[in-house]
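Final report, section 2: Outcomes. Of the targets proposed, Tetratricopeptide repeat protein is the one most frequently requested by collaborating groups, and we therefore present its record in full.
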Amino acid sequence: MEEKNFDTQLESAMTLFKKRDYEGAMEEFKKLLDKDNKNPHLYNNIGLCYSHLGQTTMAEEYFKKALFIDDKMVETYINLADIYYKENRLWDAIDLLQGAIALVSDNAALRHYLARIYIEDKRYDDAIDALDSVLELAPKNYDANWDLGMVYFELGDYDSAIANFEEVLNYIEDNELIFYQTALAYEANDEIDKAISNLLKSIAVNDKFPLGYKRLGMLFMARGDMEDAKEYYEEYLKFDIPQEEKEQIQNILNRLG
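The predicted structure is given below as tokens.
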């Protein structure tokens, strides 16, 4: 009977949490601690409530209590690292996640979060190593390919960036931003025809994507295809863009005749 009451009370607490009544949920979770003060999930949930309420010091305290009881709770490591990240305590986040990976070495999520902290800290070589390890554990994790592509793009290794963006496109073919970023990598790699091809795909996926039209105008003009450049610049002008930019594009169109 007591176990049933516990489960009912836990369900009530989770319902409050899902409704974003974090104070109410926290009160219920704390009542449950009176019945089971060695339950790491309760400490984690209370930490989440404090975090959502902006009380990060208390959130950190409860996340640490959860990890003291169970030092392999992946979710809690990520929750605590997220606090450190938002407070720009990047080294604390890195140290925490490195320790977590030592304990739970086969978890791709921990490695991926660590990679993103490395990226934020501009430790790109470390980020590449971490992302490669994510893909070893989860070869179909295209989010890791995306992050790798962005890192390689930042480093100027456009061939590697393109390879990773193309890998993402094996899984997602209906996202204009992926085609656009792939186009930017091809453009930076002086492969203008492939850049144009990907930009055309971006606006085929979403014909209300202004950046695709603008970039097409630029690349067609750079290639000497002035009529095509005019067509896409004129389409770009139909979007709600700043007046100053409209005037700049109109000046280009005037020069193109």
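DSSP finds 15 helices and no strands in the chain.
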